């Protein structure tokens, strides 16, 4: 399955927002949680759109996107 780069970028951005939640509490946590939710919703909407256009299941596309994000994060050349 060929995953568009923009889907990987959106998923990575959502994961980065999620990671920023660590150690926060109160208002800071609430603000960051909203940022994470917005980023995750944008990634999910793009995945769903791609799945619809490509005729694939959203679950399959999401799985491939997450796998691609993990591969790029593990790449020692980056």
Automatic annotation (TrEMBL):
Name this protein carries in UniProt: Uncharacterized protein
Bias type Basic and acidic residues, positions: 63-78
Annotated region described as Disordered, given as residue ranges: 53-78
